[in-house]
Amino acid sequence: EDGWIPLETYTVSGTSTSEYDFETAGDFDGTYHRLMLSINDLSLTAGGENLQLQVKMGGSYKTDQQYVFHVISGGSDSSDVNGYVHSGTGSSELKINHSMEEDAAGTQQGFIFCDNPAATGDRPCFHWESAGHDNSLNNNHFIGTGVYQGATTALQGIKIKCSSGNFDSGTITLYGLKK
Hints:
Elements: E1 4-11, E2 19-22, E3 32-44, E4 51-57, E5 60-61, E6 67-75, E7 84-91, E8 94-95, E9 108-115, E10 125-133, E11 139-148, E12 157-162, E13 167-178
Antiparallel strand pairs: 1-13, 2-12, 3-9, 3-13, 4-5, 4-8, 4-12, 6-7, 6-11, 9-10, 10-11
């Protein structure tokens, strides 16, 4: 086993981008049985927004209401210390976290994993963990899982996007792990 191999890095430059597509064909051709997105110091231009994920299957990014996710968060705010659950059925994306702080004061760190992205006959399942500050500068920790239920074809890409506003700073790196 070769360990995690860096495949592609998106470095935010400027504030004009609200999404980024990881879709290099070789990253999704079955060479890697697990993919990981590593999120480092990511911040948004608008506060109170969240990070989202969509999949590319059958030649297009899926925006229909076929995503299902579950996220548990806990934080330093007294209302969050016992955990807060976010669930979505019939959603148009996976919601990775919630209420991110804008600018460098509220950067997010984390990992998003996808197992068997080239498998057919099954749905690619994602699971993630991230931490950062919310819009009130409370520390938060997110653990989630989600799936696109609308197709069982191989994954062709992953889109990371803002719920509103744009990326302000940070990097997102796609890694692959061989069988």
